[in-house]
Amino acid sequence: MMTHTFRTLSTLVVLSLCTFGTQAQSGDPLTLLKEVEKKTLAYTDQTIQFTMVIEAPGRDGKKVQRKTSGKVEVVGEKALLSLNGQLIFLEGARVTTVSEEDEEIVVRKLDGDETQFTPAALVKKYETGSNFQWAGEETVANGVKIVYIRMKPKNNVDVRDVVLGINMRTKRIHSYQEFGTNDVTTTLRIVQYDVNQGVTLQKVTFNKSKYPGYDYVAPTGM
Fold first, then answer.
1. How many CA atoms are closer than 13 Å to the CA of 123, on its beta-carbon side?
2. Average of pLDDT values for 164-180?
3. Residue 153 to residue 127: CA distance in whole angstroms
4. CA nearest 143: which of 119, 167, 163, 125?
5. Nearest to 149 by CA among 50, 65, 35
6. How confident is residue 89, by pLDDT bands cut at 50, 70 and 90?
7. Which distant-in-sequence residues (6+ apart) come within 8 Å of 175 by Cβ?
C-alpha cells in the first residue's frame, strides 16, 4: 500500500510539472493537455491542497475506503508533501520522510520496480506510453466546466486507465482518478491550487540540520 500511495502522490507531482510530449493535433485531447502544460510550466512554484480516497475490495466483497488529505509544494522537479503528520521530500530517486511526532527521519533510495514511480520516470511514461481519449465533461460549482481525458497506459500491469479532469476556466488540473488492474480505485481531487507564492527551492529540499536530535535511518552514503 505504501508503494501504491507513493506512486499516486508522485503522479500528482508529475501533473504539477505537466509535461506531455506527444505530438498534439487540433481537436485531440493532447491539444488541451499541451495548453495546460504551457501555462503550468510558467509557474515558479505551486502549492496544491488535495484529498485522496483509496477504494479497495474488502474481504466480505464490499468496498473499503481510506480517505486522507494533504498538501504538496513543487519547485522545479523537487517537491515537499505534507501527509498524515509527516513531511515527505521527493528528490529524484531519494525519498526522505520526517516524522516530527516520532522525531525520526527515514531515507529511502528507490530501486528496482520502484524507480518507475519517480516523477521523472512517470513523465517519460505518460509522454510515450499512453493513449488519450475524451471522457466527458460536467459543470461544477460557480459554473466551472470540467473536461475529462482518459489516459490508457500501455504495457502497465498495475494501472488499467486514468481519468484526468481539467478546469477549463483556469486550465489547471482539477482531479485525477486511477483504476488499477487489482480493482483498487484512487481518486485525487484538488481543493486549492496556489501558484507563484514565493515557495523556495530551499524549502522543498531536505536539510538534516533542521532536525537536531532526530533518529536518522538511511542507506550507507545517504
1. 15
2. 89
3. 10
4. 167
5. 35
6. very high
7. 146, 163, 164, 165, 187, 188, 189, 190
CA 93 to CA 102: how far, in whole Å?
24
pLDDT in tens, 27-65: 688 788 878 877 887 889 989 898 989 999 988 888 899
Structural domains of the chain, ranges and CATH numbers in brackets? 2-129+194-217 (2.50.20.10)
User: Which residues are CB-neighbours of 93 under 8 A, at least 6 positions away?
Assistant: 109, 110, 111, 115, 118
Question: 221: how many CB neighbours lie within 10 A of its CB?
Answer: 5
Provide the residue count of the chain: 222
- Which residues, in sequence order, are CB contacts of 150 under 8 Å at separation 6+? 132, 133, 134, 135, 161, 162, 163, 164
What residues does 110 pair with on adjacent strands?
A: none
